Amino acid sequence: MSARIFYQEDCNLELLKGKKIAIIGYGSQGHAHALNLTESGCDVIVGLYEGSKSWAKAEAQGLKVYTAAEAAKQADIIMILINDEKQADLYKKDIEPNLEAGNMLMFAHGFAIHFGQILPPEQVDVAMIAPKAPGHTVRSEYQAGKGTPCLVAIEQDATGKALDVALAYAAGLGGARAGVLETTFRTETETDLFGEQAVLCGGVCALMQAGFDTLVEAGYDPRNAYFECVHEMKLIVDLIYESGFEGMRYSISNTAEYGDYVTGPKIVTEETKKAMKKILSDIQDGSFAKEFLLDMSAAGGQAHFRAMRKLAAEHASEKVGKEVRSLYSWSDSEKLINN
Ligand SMILES: NC(=O)C1=CN([C@@H]2O[C@H](COP(=O)(O)OP(=O)(O)OC[C@H]3O[C@@H](n4cnc5c(N)ncnc54)[C@H](OP(=O)(O)O)[C@@H]3O)[C@@H](O)[C@H]2O)C=CC1
Ligand SMILES: CC[C@](O)(C(C)=O)C(=O)O
Ligand SMILES: [Mg+2]
Ligand SMILES: [Mg+2]
To answer: Which position among 109, 114, 231, 304 bears the catalytic label?
Structure first.
């Protein structure tokens, strides 16, 4: 049987009436969940730590902010939206001691539950609403009267109402306007990690930068290389987003379409597929999670993460990109980074 997909008419926002929702974390996802749910009429508070740079931002945006422990104590539904690698410590220290039977613990990604970082007690519901977009898009789509597709998964159903309450949450977030696909914590975790590593972030950035480097090394103007291999990616992807690969190919020239068919398989080869399978198996058997959690731990000191971030920031496309983007009259890249 194929998985169900839920829309507005399948969700009852009324189920959240009288329930307090604590959004723990106010970053990319946290701000979008807190503001969208508040504007959908829900009773939302935010949980952070003393000294968090997000605290003043959440208050300035009209939200009541408490420590994570206090917010968890007050809430019926606790959505954990802090960094995956920090969730286990936060849970032990601030959430677990304040959980009551019948509460719902929620996540936007299954990492901490699937990899056994958090083991909730049997008397609480454990659910996931995972938006398939960056938090800033979850917010802007909601504000535009649209929504972001989400995945819903139930790990524990202590109350017997977990799915209905999770779907009500998805409606408040705006996700049910676009569709909420039923899945499991395992599937969401594995597919999300695979997608972001092999295609969306790792794959696409490496492809764009390799294209940029090839043109620059051949002596072409770096600004020209940036337009061709980075800037135009959005315009092509927008067409795919709107009308699929066929729609995109309708819009490009025959020359481009021909080159697309003959050259694509020379770039993404059987070797690339083999590498993708290895990436997936490292995710499935927990090797990636182990490596990531070790580097991000106090002992690891984020040594690898920081070194890779530094190297990425130094790539020649970043300097040119900044210069090129500053010329766009609509440029808001700095705005996004500061939000
Ligand atoms: N980024 C995205 O668009 C997506 C993220 N997700 C998932 O959503 C979750 C949140 O990720 P994301 O939004 O990227 O996170 P961010 O890094 O953007 O934000 C993290 C937030 O948590 C706060 N925080 C950090 N440590 C603590 C703590 N100990 N107690 C309370 N608050 C804390 C941070 O405050 P401060 O900055 O002040 O330290 C910040 O407000 C993750 O599970 C992620 O996988 C899922 C889909 C997409
Ligand atoms: C693609 C990256 C993502 O999975 C997302 C925005 O959905 C993330 O973890 O940020
Ligand atoms: Mg994702
Ligand atoms: Mg992700």
So the answer is: 109
User: Which residue CA neighbors atom 1 of ligand 2 most closely?
Assistant: 196
d(CA 339, CA 323): 21
Is 122 among the domain residues? Answer: yes
pLDDT in tens, the chain (339 residues): 689 999 999 999 999 999 999 999 999 999 999 999 999 999 999 999 999 999 999 999 999 999 999 999 999 999 999 999 999 999 999 999 999 999 999 999 999 999 999 999 999 999 999 999 999 999 999 999 999 999 999 999 999 999 999 999 999 999 999 999 999 999 999 999 999 999 999 999 999 999 999 999 999 999 999 999 999 999 999 999 999 999 999 999 999 999 999 999 999 999 999 999 999 999 999 999 999 999 999 999 999 999 999 999 999 999 999 999 998 877 665 556 655
290 lies in a domain?
no
Query: Which residues hold their Cβ within 5 A of ligand 4, which is an ion?
Result: 192, 196
pTM assigned to the model:
0.96
The verdict on the CB of residue 162 being under 6 Å from ligand 1 is no
Residue pair 76/44 in contact (Cβ under 8 Å)? The answer is no
Based on its alpha-carbon atoms, the radius of gyration of the chain, rounded to whole angstroms, reads 22
Regarding the beta carbon of 192 and ligand 2, being less than 6 Å apart is answered: yes
* Residue 233 counted as domain residue: yes
- Which CATH number does the domain housing residue 9 bear? 3.40.50.720
Residue 135 CB less than 6 A away from ligand 1? yes
How many domains does the structure of the chain reveal? 2
What is the position in ligand 1's atom list of the atom closest to the CA of 29? Answer: 13
Range of the domain at 173: 5-183
Q: In whole angstroms, give the CA distance from residue 188 to residue 182.
A: 10
